[in-house]
Automatic annotation (TrEMBL):
PANTHER family assigned: PROTEIN TOLB (PTHR36842:SF1), PROTEIN TOLB HOMOLOG (PTHR36842)
Family: Belongs to the TolB family.
Protein name: Biopolymer transporter Tol
Stored InterPro entries: 6-blade_b-propeller_TolB-like, WD40
Pfam families found in the cross-reference section: PD40
Domain of life: Bacteria
SUPFAM superfamilies in UniProt: DPP6 N-terminal domain-like (SSF82171)
Length: 278
């Protein structure tokens, strides 16, 4: 079932300018718990909510998904802007024309216990990076965007998530508990590099299209997984000069699950879920 807002809660979509640090409130909803903002190449923002996908304008404008089952909060747009790839609640990935039209299933049947969770598309648009969930195990996988043979990228007992291509197409960025708790990594073939090493629980690395920095979500120490409605969730930027704190919010799951940078790398989007306790 899609997530819903709690009494007194709202969804707030922000865009932050990484040069000035200014946070601009773009859209608020008291009705729809929307999640996972990302951008089309021409600069439109899209989010998911209620099992559907929406463009953000003066209101949420539904994108026709062409018969695809209800979706979760993992969706990416092809580099040419023609296609949106989504993770559906039936455990499969689908390709849908962004202008509307029939959906096409991309993924293969790997048994009833296997689920696909999409996080990235290669810069040339040919390959999708996803998390394969088997009972008790998550690993990074890839599959041709046109459909074809899956390739398993990681193969260990540590929980991996958030697999996303870097702008050079060589590295796949992801978070993993192989360091004891979730930290950020990147992998290319047999080469693995750890990118963060601190006491906080770090998720969903999003490399800027121009390669200048990595935006990510940081949970308090001791957090298990990436739950919703957590205080002291931080949006951070990892640069060549170190970690830059951008904001602290009430949120977590849904705040920034998918590639969230603007096409020109000057800004990225996130969602907060403030709760009026009064």
């Amino acid at each position: 079932m899609p997530r819903t807002l709690r009494p007194g809660q709202r969804s707030e979509l922000y865009v932050v300018d990484v040069l000035t640090g200014e946070h601009r409130l773009v859209f608020t909803s008291l009705d729809v718990l929307f999640e996972a903002p990302n951008w089309t190449p021409d600069g439109d923002l899209i989010v998911n909510g209620n099992g559907k996908l929406f463009r953000v304008a003066d209101e949420l404008v539904e994108i026709e998904l062409g018969g695809v089952p209800d979706i979760n909060n993992d969706h990416v747009v092809s580099p040419d802007g023609s296609t949106v790839y989504v993770s559906a609640d039936d455990g499969h990935l689908y390709a849908v024309p962004l202008a509307g039209g029939p959906g096409r299933r991309v993924t293969n049947d790997r048994g009833p216990g296997f689920h696909h969770y999409l996080h990235g598309v290669s810069p040339d648009g040919t390959t999708l990076a996803y998390i394969g969930l088997e009972p008790g195990i998550t690993n990074v996988w890839t599959i041709p965007a046109a459909g074809g043979t899956d390739v398993q990228v990681t193969d260990d007992e540590h929980a991996d998530d958030g697999s996303e291509y870097g702008p050079d197409g060589k590295w796949i960025y992801f978070n993993s508990e192989r360091a004891g708790h979730a930290q950020l990594f990147r992998i290319a073939g047999d080469e693995v590099e750890q990118l963060t090493d601190d006491e906080r629980v770090n998720w969903f690395p999003h490399p800027a299209p121009h390669g200048s920095s990595i935006a990510y979500v940081s949970f308090p120490p001791g957090t298990e997984g990436h739950p919703a409605d957590i205080e002291d969730v931080r949006i951070r930027l990892l640069t060549s000069e170190g970690i830059r704190e951008l904001t602290t919010l009430f949120g977590g799951q849904g705040t920034m699950n998918v590639p969230s940078w603007s096409p020109d790398s000057t800004a990225f989007a996130y969602v907060a879920y403030p709760l009026d306790v009064s």
